[in-house]
Specification:
It is built from twelve helices and 20 strands. With 427 residues, it is of the alpha/beta class. The longest helix is centred in the middle third of the chain and has 21 residues. It holds the Pfam family Orn_Arg_deC_N.
């Protein structure tokens, strides 16, 4: 959200001490901009909250939210773990010099080649999601004479209050071993019987963009109950309980996210009440680390006025660089970056340039008087903007710039038209 300290004397939006209008001129639009100090501060808030309650912990950045070499390098500097969900994310993290022993490999259908890649690069832990993966990994480890840490992803039967596509902890889910039906126990038996797998612990993730603490507290209680049940049956107590991520952020004035301190204090209280020997607790924030730090800059172009209806103000990007409004009906807020000191005079639809009627980035956005060439900044776009970007309508993907302490640095080049055809072959 915008505060007075983000506006310069000339009425421009400032990001990380840099004038956003200057960034748009220097690098072009659309442009993803990240305030790196915000990312660092959020990581440190999670760490501080754990240290205050006295729990052993790891913060693991869920990199599907935003995965480029530069962000992995920031995570390395901040001494956190990361999780990846594909061979591509794993390759990017390794190419960035991120230490493999601090990588968790997630996914509900890891391929044979991806698992080989993970084993050969000695990732810290593979999150086993299904029986097929257990069989594949067992075969690879036996062939390569390797051993590796694993965790079991469970579906504990807890549904988060979020968009239906973001719910992952309920029984009817494509993810994880179901607890209720006995799948989790069978998976536990198979892993414990495999001499090449070291079962580090259990994992669950209940959803994304969650505002309340109730679901997380319920999950903590359930994971301890599951651990006690497994201890009775297998004489196994987890070294690690991973409670996943899903902490919501404020995209607009209606959103009221929980703080790191609130969330961690409540789960710590629940864990300590139900367990004398609390395992190391891992969390996997992604959106909450990078989301609020991200801004997307666009140039305003055409306008359509219809009598007695809301006007359309169009920008030079849209669903290709932020699919979430079309896919999830996600709501964002925006400002005119070069007119921060001007009064609001109207409400408009912010329309993208893509050839789809549903390419409406913001349905009702209060605006000052706008002109072609103005710079629109959409706020809180750091998560799932670039990572879900696409070349629909053969539009190149935008560049990415990091800003920190008044300095800007290009970390992902803008795609060119030549890039779009670089993999095409003649027929």
């Amino acid at each position: 959200m915008i505060t007075d300290d983000l506006t310069s004397d000339n009425g421009h939006l400032m990001i990380g001490g840099v004038d956003s209008v200057d960034l748009a001129k220097k690098y072009g639009t659309p442009l993803y901009v990240f305030d790196v100090s915000q990312i660092r501060n959020q990581i440190r808030k999670f760490k501080s909250a754990f240290e205050e309650v006295g729990l052993k912990y790891q913060v693991s950045y869920a990199s599907k939210a935003f995965a480029v070499k530069a962000i992995y390098q920031v995570m390395k500097q901040e001494d956190v773990h990361i999780d990846v969900v594909s061979g591509g994310e794993l390759h990017t993290a390794l190419a960035a010099g991120f230490p493999s022993e601090k990588i968790s490999f997630h996914g509900n259908n890891k391929t044979f080649d991806e698992l080989v890649m993970a084993v050969q690069n000695h990732v810290g832990v593979i999150m086993l999601d299904n029986f097929h993966e257990i069989e594949l990994l067992s075969r690879i480890l036996n062939t390569d004479h390797e051993k590796i840490n694993v965790m079991l992803r469970l579906t504990p039967g807890i549904s988060a209050h979020t968009h239906k596509y973001d719910q992952t902890g309920q029984t009817d889910s494509k993810f994880g071993f179901d607890v209720e039906s006995g799948q989790a126990k069978e998976a536990m038996k198979q892993v414990l019987d495999d001499p090449n797998m070291n079962l580090l612990g259990i994992h669950a993730h209940i959803g994304s963009q969650i505002f309340g603490t109730q679901g997380f507290v319920m999950l903590a209680k359930k994971m301890i109950a599951i651990s006690k049940d497994l201890q009775k049956e297998f004489n196994y107590w987890p070294e690690v309980i991973n409670l996943g991520g899903g902490f919501g952020i404020s995209y607009n004035a209606d959103d009221d996210p929980i703080t790191a301190n609130e969330f961690i204090k409540q789960i710590a209280d629940e864990l300590k009440q139900n367990c004398d020997d609390v395992p190391e607790i891992w969390i996997e924030p992604g959106r909450s680390i990078v989301g609020p730090a991200g801004y997307t800059l666009y140039e305003i172009g055409s306008r359509k006025d219809i009598p007695n209806l809301t006007p359309y103000v169009s920008v030079d990007g849209g669903m290709g660089d932020n699919i979430r409004p079309a896919l999830y009906q996600a709501k964002y807020e925006a400002v005119v970056a070069n007119k921060m000191d001007q009064s609001i005079v109207e409400t408009a639809h912010i329309a993208g340039k893509y050839c789809e009627s549903g390419d409406i980035m913001i349905d009702q956005q209060p605006l000052p008087k706008t002109d072609p060439g103005d710079i629109l900044a959409v706020l809180d776009t750091g998560a799932y903007g670039y990572s879900m970007a696409m070349n629909y309508n053969r539009n190149p993907r935008p560049a990415v710039v990091f800003v920190e302490d008044g300095q800007d640095k290009l970390v992902v080049k803008r795609e060119t038209y030549q890039d779009l055809t670089s993999l095409d072959l003649d027929y």
